[in-house]
Amino acid sequence: MTTRRLRRVCSGLLALLVVGGARAVSGAPLLVANNGLDGPATCGSKGAPCRSISQAIANAQEGDTILVGPGRYGDLNGDGAFDDPGDEAAEVDTGCDCMIHVDKPVTILSRDGAGATILDAGSASVFVVRIDAGGASLGEVGKGFTVLGSGDSSGIVALSSAAEIVIAGNRMIGLAGTGLSLLGRGNTALANDSIGNAGFGFFFRLEGGGNSIAGNEAILNGSGFELRGARDDLVVGNAALRNEVDGFRLLEVSCTFIGDVAAGNLGHGFSLTANSRGVVILGSVAAGNGRGINVTGDSLVVSRSSVVGNYGVGVAVHAAATGIEIEQSNLFGNNGGADLGLTNCGLLNASAAPVLAGGNFWGLPNGGVGSDPGDRPCDAAGGFLPTATFSPAARKEIKVRPRVAQ
Amino acid sequence: MPHAARRLHLMALIAALPFVGMPGSARGGTTLYVDNKGTDGPATCGTKAAPCRSISQAIANAQLDDTILVGAGRYGDLNDDGSFDDPGDEAAEVDTGCDCMLKIDKRVSLFSLSGAGVTVLDAAGASIAVVHVAAASVTVGAPGRGFLLVGSGDSAGLRSAANAAVVVGNRAIDNGEQGFDLDGNLHLVAGNRAIGNSGVGFELGGIGNTVLENAALYNEVGFETFDGPNLVQSNLASGNEIGVRAGGSGATFVANVASGNSGIGWVLRVASAGFMLRGNLVQGNGSQGLLISGSSHVLTGNSIVGNRLSGVLVLSGASAISVEQGNLFGNNDALDLGMRNCGVFNLSMGNVLALENFWGTPSGPGGDPGDTVCNGVFSSIEFGPVAAKEFKVKAEAAR
Questions:
Q1: Which of A117, A241, A248, A310 to mutate to probe the B interface, most B CBs <10 Å?
Q2: CB–CB of A402 and B394 under 8 A?
Q3: A176 touches chain B (CB under 8 A)
Q4: Mutation target among B8, B37, B307 for the A interface, most CBs of A within 10 A
Q5: What string of H, E and C letters represents the secondary structure of chain A?
Q6: pLDDT attached to residue A21
Q7: Selection from B301, B344, B348 nearest residue B320 by Cα
Q8: Selection from A107, A89, A104, A101 nearest residue A50 by Cα
C-alpha cells in the first residue's frame, strides 16, 4: 500500500472521529412532539411543539436543528391519506414522492433515539425520508430514527448530488426497497442498521470522494452494501450479515475497507465487479459466505484479513482481473469451489495475470499449503499456482480483529 | 449507552451471577479448541495444536465443566451437499434424536474466540434446530464471544430443554421458527439479537429466567413468555409483527422498548396475572400500544406514546388493572367505535385505575394535542389526579 493512500486513510479516520455524525447546534432547536400541534410559522417552541416533522422543516431556517420527541410520525390515523391534522406532508406520486422532504440544510435529531422514534409511511408508495439539501443531517449516534413502512420504495434517500449529508444512528426495517440510498460527495453514514429490506441494505453512489461509511450493519437484506462510483472513500467497521446475495458489492469503485465483516451471506462476502479498481481491504473478515471475495476488477489489495470457512472459494480471481495482491492474511476452512470441481481453494486464480499471495497463513502449522485441514492456492485447472507467488507462507494464524460491534 | 460501555456493563452484570462461566474463568475443567483449520478425531482433537474441526467432536471429547473455544469461520454441512456426513461436518441428527445440528449434552461452556459476527453455525436449511441444549447449566457465548446461528429450515436457532442455560452474545438470524426457544427454568439470556426469524425472536417457558439487553427485530413476535415469574429488562422489540406477548404470572418487565412493530406493541395474555411493567417505552406501534387481558397487572412509569390505535386497550374480563405515573399521548383512534385520542380504552366492564399520568397537556385527559379516556359499556377509568408535565422515561434498551 502506498504512503499516499495510508495518509489518506489516516486523515479520513481522523475526520470520522471528529465528525462522529454530529453537527453543532446553533440556537434553540425547533421541537416536534406527539403532543404537539402544527401551525404555519407558529409551532416549534418548547411551549408549542409541532406535531409533524414536515411542519417543523417548513418553519425552520437554514442551519436550524429540529429535535423530535418519541412516538410515531406519518399517517397518524392510518386512513391511507396524509391529509389529517398532524400528518406528515407526504407527496404521493408527485413532487418528491416522499413522506418527509428535507429541502433545507437542517439537522433533524430524535430526542430519545431510534428505538423510541418511528417514521412510518404506512405502506404508501413513497420514500420515507428524502433529502435534497446539501449539509442536512438525519440523526446522530443515539439520536436517530426507526424508518419503516414504504410500500414500494426506500427508507432514506438523497437522490440528487447533494453533498455533506450526515445519516447516523438510524434503523431501517422491512422496506420494499433499499434501507439507505445516498449519492454525492463528502457524505457520512454512521452507525445505521438496515434490516430485512427487499433491496440493498445500503446503496451508495458516491461521486467526488471524501465519503465515510462507518459502523453500519446490513442484515437480511437483498444485498448488504452496494457501492458505485466511490473514489478514495473509507468504509470502516461495517458488518454485512446473512444477506440474500452479497455482503459488499462494489462497482466502479476505488475505496478502502478497514475492519469490516461479511459473514453468512448467501452470495459473495465481498464482490468486486468489473471496473472496480484500486480497492484495499484491511483487517476485515469474510466468513461463512457463498464465496469469500469474488474479484473481476483490477488492483485489489487484501492485507491482514481473514477469509475463512466460506462454502466456495476463499478468494476467486476471474479471468480479466489484474494487479491482485492477497498478503498476510488467513485463508483456510474454505470449501473450495465444489461447483468448479476444485477443493480447498483458499485462493483461485483464473486470470492470466499473476496474483501475489505471499505471507498468508493457509491453515497448516508448518507454513505449508495443501488440503484439509489447510487450504491451497489453485489455478483454474485445479493445480497449484507457481510456488513463487505464495512463498513464503506464514507459519501461524494472523490476528485479525474487525472493528464491528459484536 | 455507547457500545463499548454497554458491553462492559453487560459483562459486569453477568459476571456478578454466580452460576455463569466466562472465558478465562472456566469452572475448573480444561479448554478444548475448535477451528476451521482443525481435524476431527475421537478423543484426540481439541488441543491448541490439534483443534477439532467440528464443535460436535469437541463436545464428544469434553468432560463435564470443560470450556470449548471456537475459532472464526463456519460450522455445519461444510460442503453443502445436504447431508452432515463428511469429515468435519457437525454430527447433526435430522428427523431423529435431538433434531438438531449441534447437541450440547454435557455441562460445558462454549465460546467463540472472535464473536458472533464471524463465527457462523449454519444449518443450511435443514429441518433441525441449529443448537440444542440438552444438559443443565450449559453456557453458549459471552459478551463479544457468541455465535451467529442461521439456517434452520423449520426450527429454532437455539433451543433448550434443560435448566439454567446461559445464552449470551449470540445472533439468531433467518431461522424457520424461533430465534431462541428456551423451555426449562433459571436461564440467563443476555445481549443476544434475534433478527428476521419466522417465529418468535425469544420464546421462554418456565420460571426464574433473566432476559437482559436482548434485541428482537423483524420477527413474527419479538418476545414471548409463558409461566413465570421472570425478569425481563432492557430489551428491544422493534419491527416485529407483535413486539411482546406475555403469559403466565408474576413477571417483571423493566426498561424495555416495544416500538415500531407493525401490529400490537405489547400483549398481556388471557389468564395472565400479577405482572409489573415499570419504565418501559411502548411507542409508535401499528396497532394498540398495550392490549391487556388477565388480572392484577401494575403498569407504572411507562411511556405509551404515538401508537396508531389506543395506547392501552383493556379487554373484557380483565380485572385489577392499574396504569399510573406514565405518559399517555399521541395515541390515536378506536376507529370502528368512533372514539378518538384514546390513551386508555377500557372494555373490561370494570374500573381501571389510571392515576397521576401525563396525558399530553397539563390539564389532563382531553382532545388533541392530548389523549383522553375511552370507556365501553359498564366500564370506567379513574384518572385523577393528573401529572402536569411529561415523565422522563429513558429505557436503556439494546441497539
A1: A241
A2: no
A3: no
A4: B37
A5: CCHHHHHHHHHHHHHHHHHCCCCCCCCCCEEECCCCCCCCCCCCCCCCCECCHHHHHHHCCCCCEEEECCEEEECCCCCCCCCCCCCCCCECCCCCCEEEEECCCCEEEECCCHHHEEEECCCCCCEEEEECCCCCEECCCCCCCEEECCCCCCCEEECCCCCCCEEECCEEECCCCCCEEEEECCCEEECCEEECCCCEEEEEEECCCCCEEECCEEECCCEEEEEECCEEEEEECCEEECCCCCCEEEECCEEEEECCEEECCCCEEEEECCCCEEEEEECCEEECCCEEEEECCEEEEEECCEEECCCCCCEEECCCCCCEEEECCEEECCCCCHHHCCCCEEEEECCCCCEECCCCECCCCCCCCCCCCCCEEEECCCCECCHHHHCCCCCCCCCCCCCCCC
A6: 46
A7: B348
A8: A89
By C-alpha distance, which of A227, A226, A217 is closest to A253? A227
Contact flag A72-B239 (C-beta cutoff 8 Å) = no
What residue type is A267 in one-letter code? Answer: G
Q: Cα(B209)–Cα(B201) distance, rounded to whole angstroms?
A: 16
Q: How far is CA A59 from CA A39, A40, A54, A101, A373, in A?
A: 9, 7, 9, 13, 65
Q: State the residue for C-alpha cell 463465527.
A: B119
- Dihedrals φ, ψ of B295, to 5°? -145, 155
**A18, burial (CB in 10 Å: exposed 0-12, middle 13-18, buried 19+):** exposed
Of B139, B257, B118, B316, the closest CA to residue A70 belongs to: B257
Does B219 have pLDDT greater than 50?
yes
| B370 contacts on A by Cβ (under 8 Å) | 35
Is the CB of B117 less than 8 angstroms away from the CB of A193? no
Residue A361 to residue A305: CA distance in whole angstroms: 10
**Stretch (H or E) spanning B59:** helix B55-61
Looking at the complex, report in whole angstroms how far the Cα of residue A165 sits from the nearest Cα belonging to chain B.
23
DSSP state at residue B337? G
Residue A257: how many other CB atoms lie within 10 Å? 26
Convert the pLDDT of each residue in A41-70 to its tens digit.
889 999 999 999 999 999 999 999 999 999
Residues of chain B with C-beta less than 8 angstroms from the C-beta of A32: none
Q: Residue length, chain A?
A: 406
Q: How far is CA B240 from CA A175, A189, A201, B202, B380, in A?
A: 13, 25, 18, 12, 32
The mean pLDDT of B139-145, rounded to a whole number, is 97
Q: In this complex, which of B144, B150, B305 lies closest to A406 when CB atoms are compared?
A: B144
> Could you say which of B122, B307, B361 has the minimum Cβ distance to residue A72?
B307
In chain B, the domains with their CATH numbers are 1-219 (no CATH), 229-399 (2.160.20.10)
Among A85, A118, A406, select the one facing B260 at the smallest CB separation.
Answer: A118
Q: With cut-offs at 50, 70 and 90, classify the pLDDT of residue A4.
A: very low
Q: Is-contact A139 A117, C-beta < 8 A?
A: no
Going by pLDDT thresholds of 50, 70 and 90, the confidence category of residue A18 is very low
φ/ψ (deg, to 5) at B305: -135, 140
Amino acid at B195: I
Torsional class of A76: left (φ above 0), alpha (ψ -120 to 50), beta (otherwise): alpha
Residues A104, A137: Cα–Cα separation, whole Å: 10
A215 CA: distance to closest CA in chain B (Å): 11
Closest to A292 in 3D by CA, of A274, A275, A308: A308
- CB-CB contact of A213 with A191 (8 Å): no
Cα distance from B293 to chain A (closest Cα, Å)?
24
Distance of alpha carbon A14 from alpha carbon A402, whole angstroms = 18
0.90 surpassed by complex ipTM: yes
Strands B312-314 and B290-292: parallel
